[in-house]
Amino acid sequence: MIAQYKQTRPQMGVFIIRCKKNTKYYLEGTQNLHGRINGTQARLAAGMHPNRELQKEWKEWGKENFTIEVLETLDYDKEDEAKTDYSDELALLQMDWEEKLAREKLVPYQKKG
Length: 113
What we know:
By secondary structure, this protein is an alpha+beta fold.
């Protein structure tokens, strides 16, 4: 079981944090969805998230006014088991979602704020 656990690779993909009070969102692509979402929630709870605008509204309105969801997962390359870097694929997936969200008139949280 331990060997199987070590061979299990984390789920990759794109997740979103949406604010219920406005049309803003935070989007991130990651090679470890579960770990990154947990880390993001911990940083927000501690007031240490690098996106200041998101952090400010999270603190102001509370976590109950935000939703966090996985938008899409990315499969590992079955033909190249040794592949470990999926950053290009994740960046493309994230850009695709940014375009979809823009068509829905949603606005990303600014990187600095």
